[in-house]
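Progress against Task 2.4 (sequence-to-structure conversion) is shown through the following example record, which the project officer requested during the mid-term review.
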Amino acid sequence: MTDQASSADIRQDPDLLAVEETETYLLTLRLAKDQMECVAAIAFKPLSVPVTAHQGDAGDDGSCETLSRRDSDDEISADMPVSKGRGGTRLRPAQMMDLLHRHQVTANIDEVAIREFCASVEQRQQPPPTVVARGIEPQPGADGWFELLVKVSGEEQEFIPDDKGRIDLKRLNAYTEIEPEQKLGVIHPPEPGVSGYTVHGLEIEGPWGSPRTINAGEGVLLKYGGRMAFSTRSGRALFDKNTLTVVDQLIIAGNVDLSVGHINFNGFVEIKGDVLDDFDVRSTRGIKIGGHVGACHIESEGSIEVGAMAGREIGHIFCQGNLYARYLNQVTVVCYGDVVVTNEIRNSHVRATGHVVVERGGIIGGEVVALKGVSATTIGAVSGQKTLVTAGVYFPDVERSEYISRQLNTIEEQIRSINSAIRPLMQHLRKGSRFIDTARVRLQILNDKLDALYQQKTAFTAEAMTSQPLEIEDRNPKINVQKVLRDGVAVSLGKAREEIKFDRQGPLSIIENTRQGGLRFLSLTALSVSAAEIEQEQIALESDVFP
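Structure tokens generated for the chain above:
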């Protein structure tokens, strides 16, 4: 290869950093990957081809000449010695290192690669192009990221011990209960990158990370320049396809069992399967259960709909809306609305501030209390099982009155018991017994207890005397029976309390006889017709017949 060709290569190839030419080889150093790598390559010459010096200053032995180039990018210039050795093919690692240093390639030199490259040259084996120096790649900064501050639906379950270290395996804590205006998450900004360096040591600025954005779905509001997410309603959080939403509906496709656990949700709950024994379901906006419910606690601030429920005397329903069911058996129901049952209420305790209606079946056993009336196809059992039905009563007033009465009875029993214990102690004091000191201490304790009981008695008595039942205009003390009212049923309407002595065939309506006392058994009228209207009509008729 001639010197003129080498010079032409330098002019034509801007990535060519240096050339060293001897009588046996042509060594080139090239810049690659935007000056992030320095690659050495060598081409062997036929030994018979002479090499002519080009524009150089020969040494004493006439063995060297010089080629030069200027790098237009980094303004690096160098004189490259072209060695013409006469003792065979020799390329020492020191020569390569010197060549790199003269062209200001000083950082991250791969000495191992250089030694292997030179060893191949010395054995006249063609080495592949070899990276002899590497720059440092710039590193991008961390991307912005979204930090969720709540647990979203679909995450793993988490068992949290109580204050005594106990774990309830039915409380899975699979998501966070979201409240309005609760902070849901924070978007963190991207970070700056880490600078890199070329093989010449020139700094390359690392790129910033990518910013993160999210989409605000229903129930979510982004504030503070879109950096923070807040809820606008209660419910549970969902984060899917980069969209954060708060939904106020929880749908369970199967049964409520150990895989689901207790449910306590700020929104509407729909369960398409069954609710197994000893699982609780609570919601703020209503509950719909398509299957059967066992011995569970079902509670909602809205209406409740269940397929059927067998409570085994420990199942409860607390409802601040209306209750709809196909069947209730051994269930305690507290409903601040209407109770509508399709087939049957059996051995249950049902209290409602609306009406209680059994559309196609009956009320068998247990107790039913309704403010706006009771309606059923049959009431009572063939066996004479005790069934209590009360209409026209606001049950919270009744319950408070019953509670006060129970407390007064308990207090009276305790007072009598303490007075009985005081009498023998007083005898010890009068007789000067050797137990007189013990008797005095015991008397003091009993008298203090007696004073406290009398204070409680006074407070409960005052409440009982001053409290007045809540006046409700749509109170309706009326019971409708479509087919049979069986014997043994206890009916309470207004001031009338009566136990049915024999079966009465329907259809009929039962109201209080306010004129003569007892009950009136009349032709069936709808519950929408109040007992007061019917009673006025009956009194008017009786006045015409018996003026």
